[in-house]
Write a structure and sequence with these properties.
Helices cover about 40% and strands about 15% of the residues. It has helices spanning about 1-10, 40-55, 75-90, and strands at about 15-20, 25-35, 105. Strand 1 and strand 2 form a beta hairpin. The longest helix has 17 residues, at about 75-90.
Length: about 110
């Protein structure tokens, strides 16, 4: 988690990551555009590559591509945030989202 957080903070800065949650087989996060010359798909490919090179675990594989959704209101943000945080609960990994240790925030976003 520390490696990915550092990549988002220091290297992959074309998009800024807010809250994130890492699952065993995928990641959820909010991001906001900082540099309009980078499409979100290009940025995702960049940070996946940087993480893989820093992680040094040959068996690690990111799933191909990414699914993204544009959040258009504070209400939708809250709904997505709740969905994201409840993911480990729905999967039976913890009983309350606060127990999940693989979550954090890189940048503060405000509406």
């Amino acid at each position: 988690m520390r490696i990915l957080h550092a990549v988002w903070l220091n290297e992959a800065t074309a998009w800024l990551v807010g809250d994130y949650l890492l699952m065993p087989d995928h990641a959820h996060f909010f991001c906001g555009l900082r540099d309009s010359s980078f499409a979100v798909e290009r940025w995702v490919a960049f940070w996946k590559d940087r993480f893989a090179k820093s992680h040094c675990e040959e068996t690690w594989m990111w799933q191909r591509g990414a699914f993204h959704h544009r959040v258009r209101s504070i209400q939708e943000y809250r709904e997505k945030w709740t969905y994201m945080m409840e993911n480990p609960v729905r999967k039976g990994l913890v009983t309350q989202w606060e127990e999940w240790p693989w979550r954090g925030r890189v940048h503060d976003f405000s509406w």
